[in-house]
Write a structure and sequence with these properties.
- This protein has 18 helices and 34 strands.
- The chain has an eight-stranded parallel barrel, surrounded by five helices. Strands 27, 28, 29, 30, 31, 32, 33 and 34 form an eight-stranded antiparallel β-sheet that branches. Strands 1, 2, 3, 4, 5, 6 and 7 form a seven-stranded mixed β-sheet that branches.
- β8, α3 and β9 form a beta-alpha-beta unit.
- It is globular, with a radius of gyration of 28 Å.
- It binds zinc ion.
């Protein structure tokens, strides 16, 4: 139950990520008494030891020195039986011994050791006696950083790397190119950065509205020279972090194609380097042979700079309309026997894969690269939920799990007004408790889940302070998920996170506030015509709620555990801050209507990542969880199971054109007794929205009572984004919610 914390149980040491094996001893090592002879370098090296000394100085204000009699001793023992990257750390009153097979283990031991130091009110520093044997759960423990939407200085990139290292992450996925700017110097193609590195203005107006930055109307951009990149790669390597560069292809490439339009399809029109969010039509021509030479040249220089096993090639969100209109692309499709544009993308990616393989590297890309087939050695990053990851792993590909909810740290984590980031909340608790390895993956293919990664896209985080705000404290959660063999209870983790904040303060980190968010889980009980309600909160504070739509106060019901509702309800729930205000009231409407829990068939399936909450997404009784269908209509037939008298149908759609989501162009309701002959009972013609709105549209219809068994809803999609839209011609989405039948 939220709010309850075991008090009798002995508290865990304040370590994040929590070690694989830990045994507490008795007594402690007196660090204050040993400052002058603290460290014996032994098998460590100067860089490691100065790292330790500097970190402890920053975090605890203690000046440690080294000498032959030093009581903190480092040993490399190659015979030690330890998994890769593991270490042993032993603290006793007599001293501290750190042992590992190789340097990386010593480095991770230092990250543990610095967190073990305790300083009392009198300023006396000690380390509690403990024996730790530690090693990671996953080989790939990643954090991504987008520097295309906004660029960050070399010093900031290094700071970011330090944050990863402190949390035992070992991979930085550096998103260097996109529609909004090309950031990597390529000597053979200087215009990539001279032209492709700059856009008209900083853009992303929402940031200026929120006061996050100002738009001075001047060109915005920049890039990293190859010398700077080498410096960053070396800096990361010393902290045992591999940088995996991402060169997006074939889409998300407007910046490259504005610089070198010869690799864009003929007659595809003009491109610009974007200063807003979204997906541009900038896609490399798949028919033009010189495109591949260009990309191989770019990748050759990239591989020179980055020694990583993997090279990320993007592969996501590729509008293919330019290909379908291009004679060269059409010829290529014929020549390579590609039956459709997806197979042409597969051809494109596989050519690049062969080139990387020939050079001893492995390709990794976003889960769209699975469409149309993929080379066995290639790996997949599952971002559209975990379904793509499961599919890839079952097909034998290695997978890194990065589901956008909850692992995209660009989504806000709290309800602080004007907090930087994309709409859509992903709380610290969401990140910590998310089941990384889906239950539906076969046991033998679990080994293909090689890691987890959190991503930060920077459209709405223009400054480094915003990056810090969004990655902390969530970085602690991804760290523990990636490293520790098993996660602990939320309450245990929450307590340990509290103890990390003073350390972040010492490092001057602008971390985000833990939210006062209350999650409402509804578990429908279809047989009983009821639903079980559960509230989930981050903070150990009471949750107050109502079920009649009124605003909760501190006199409202206090949540005491799961409860069952069997009447229509409008639930509102919140926690209160110490000053009596609440930053957010969560709500959910539940409706036990006549189609509640009834099965239905969709003529065109929803995308796996927008499943409306499962099998009964359109009839589960609660509002606000959507199914999403791309390009095609929502054409659904509900089977009520028996002839039932009905007089009302209502449906709900989302209208949010800037996210490529459009309400239906037309919508018609039909009813049928036998499932063969359908009679129309209502139709609406809302047309196509021509403005930047974000709204829910409903289509209630009332008619004379009819006894029917089947109901069909046909909601026609606009198909593609209209001419006025920044992504004109790109596939549009239609999002449908509960279909309420009364
Ligand atoms: Zn073409």
């Amino acid at each position: 139950m939220a709010g309850c914390q075991p008090t009798s149980e002995k508290k865990d040491l304040n370590l994040i990520p929590y070690p694989a094996e830990l045994t507490e001893g008795s007594g402690m090592f007196d660090l204050s008494a040993n400052l002058k002879h603290a460290i014996f370098i032994g098998d460590a090296d100067e860089a490691l030891v100065s790292y330790l000394i500097n970190t402890i100085k920053t975090e605890q204000g203690l000046e440690l020195s080294t000498c032959e009699q030093g009581k903190i001793r480092f040993e490399i023992n190659r015979e030690l039986q330890l998994p890769k990257e593991g270490y042993q750390l032993s603290v006793a009153p007599q001293g501290v011994t750190v042992t590992a097979n190789e340097r990386v283990g010593l480095f991770y031991a230092i990250q543990t050791l610095r967190q073990l130091i305790q300083v009392d009110e009198k300023g006396q520093a000690s380390i509690p006696a403990v024996k730790i044997k530690d090693y990671p759960r996953f080989a790939w423990r990643g954090m991504h950083f987008d520097v295309s939407r906004h660029i960050f200085s070399v010093a900031e990139i290094k700071q970011f790397i330090d944050y990863l290292a402190m949390n035992k992450l070992n991979t930085l996925h550096w998103h260097l190119v996109d529609d909004q700017g090309w950031r990597l110097e390529i000597k053979k193609y200087p215009k990539l950065t001279e032209v492709g590195g700059w856009r008209d203005k900083v853009g992303f107006e929402a940031n200026q509205t929120k006061g996050l930055n100002t738009d001075d109307g001047k060109p915005y951009g920049g890039f990293y020279t190859q010398e700077q990149v080498k410096d960053v790669v070396a800096y990361a390597a010393e902290r045992h972090i591999t940088i995996v560069p991402e060169i997006e292809l074939p889409g998300h490439s407007a910046a490259a194609l504005v610089a070198y339009p010869e690799y864009y399809c003929d007659n595809a029109g003009d491109l610009e380097i974007w200063s807003q969010a979204g997906v541009s039509a900038g896609v490399y021509c798949a028919g033009e042979e010189s495109t591949f030479q260009f990309l191989e040249d770019v990748l050759a220089e990239t591989m020179e700079l980055f020694p990583s096993e993997f090279i990320h090639i993007g592969g996501d969100e590729t509008p293919k309309d330019t290909w379908l209109a291009c004679p060269k692309c059409k010829k290529r499709m014929k020549d390579v026997n590609a039956h459709d544009e997806h197979e042409l993308q597969s051809y494109f990616v596989s050519r690049i894969e062969k080139y990387l393989s020939k050079n001893g590297r492995r390709l990794i890309g976003w889960d769209e690269i699975l469409d149309g087939g993929l080379a066995p050695n290639a790996a997949v990053m599952s971002w559209r939920g975990v379904a793509g990851g499961v599919k890839a792993a079952e097909a034998g590909h290695d997978v890194v799990m990065t589901p956008m909810f909850p692992y995209y740290f660009n989504h806000v984590q709290n309800h602080v007004p004007n907090a930087p980031g994309h709409p859509g909340i992903s709380t610290l608790r969401d990140v910590y408790t998310f089941p990384t390895i889906p239950a539906n993956i076969s046991v033998e293919n679990r080994k293909h889940i090689i890691g987890v990664q959190a991503n930060i896209w920077t459209e709405y985080t223009p400054k480094f302070e915003h990056i810090e705000y969004n990655i902390f404290p969530r970085l602690f959660a991804i760290s523990e998920v990636a490293w520790s063999p098993a996660i602990k209870t939320w309450e245990n983790f929450y307590t340990r996170v509290q103890n990390q904040f003073p350390i972040l303060d010492k490092h001057g980190v602008n971390y985000g506030e833990i939210s006062y968010h209350v999650g409402i889980n509804v578990n429908p009980q279809y047989e009983a015509n009821a639903a079980e309600i559960e509230f989930i909160a981050e903070r150990p504070l009471p949750i107050f709620y109502t079920t009649d739509g009124s605003e909760p106060t501190q006199a409202s019901n206090v949540y005491k555990g799961k409860f069952v509702l069997d009447q229509n309800a409008h639930i509102k729930a919140c926690q209160f801050k110490p000053d009596g205000t609440t930053p957010n009231i969560s709500e959910k409407e539940i409706n036990f209507h006549k189609a509640f829990g009834k099965s239905y068939e969709l003529k065109y399936d929803h995308a796996p990542q927008y499943d409306g909450g499962g099998k009964f997404g359109l009839t589960n009784g609660f509002l606000g969880v959507w199914i999403g269908v791309e390009e095609k209509p929502v054409d659904v037939t509900i089977d009520l199971g028996a002839e039932t008298e009905i007089t009302k149908i209502n449906s709900r759609f989302k209208n949010q054109p800037m996210s490529w989501v459009f309400g239906p162009k037309t919508i018609t309701y039909y009813v049928s007794v036998d499932g063969q002959t359908f009679n129309e009972v209502a139709t609406f013609n809302p047309g196509v929205t021509e403005s930047d709105v974000n709204e829910i549209v409903t289509y209630p219809a009332e008619f004379a009572p009819e006894k029917v068994r089947y109901i069909r809803i046909l909601a026609k999609s606009v198909g593609v984004c209209p001419d006025w839209h920044p992504a004109a011609g790109g596939k549009a989405w239609i999002f449908a919610d509960e279909i309420i039948v009364e």
